[in-house]
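Lay summary. Proteins are chains of building blocks that fold into shapes, and those shapes determine what they do. In this project we predict the shape from the chain. Here is one chain we studied, written as its sequence of building blocks.
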Amino acid sequence: MRILVFGTGVIGSLYGALLAVAGYDVSVYARGRRLESLLQDGLLYKSRGTIRKAPVKVLSKIAPEDCYDFVLLTVRENQLHTALEELGQNSSKAIVTMVNSLETYDRWEAICGKGRIIPAFPGAGGGFDGSVLDAALTPRLIQPTTLGKTDEREKELARILRRTKIPYQIVSLMPAGYADVMTDSCPSDIMGGQPNILWR
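And here is the predicted shape, written in a compact code that computers can read:
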């Protein structure tokens, strides 16, 4: 199972580290100073008071033929269209948009290709201490990682999250701007996972 994390801020770095530690083949795509830091030091994170390095591959470019089972898109909203345009040139079929935006998903598909979007919202927060990630998953009852129903691909992604011990839920209706909507306002079909103890 190959996973690409497109964007290495707090959210992308946390999910990338968790997935890599769980044994998945994870690549992270970065630019600018963050790319320089990752190339020099690797993806560093705090775990139980200890600084560790996640076993991820660091990429400065993505070739069109580089195919991933899932792409976690974790950029800021003002970077979203540019990122989707770039991913539109890539052959990966499942782009998990972990971005809060009021735009509709069909607008995103018009940029990257129809049927490629899996709507999602992260359940995590934190920051950086220099180049070291200091972040945590939010408790399941507050804000689990939320996946929107698509065409069954979200169930495979849910299995990955479960194995990684990331709390998640699958909702029938995933409105744009999900962060502005209370979690219990969407009908939840599947909820599972317990917080990964590495991040307590």
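What the prediction tells us: The longest strand covers residues 124-129.
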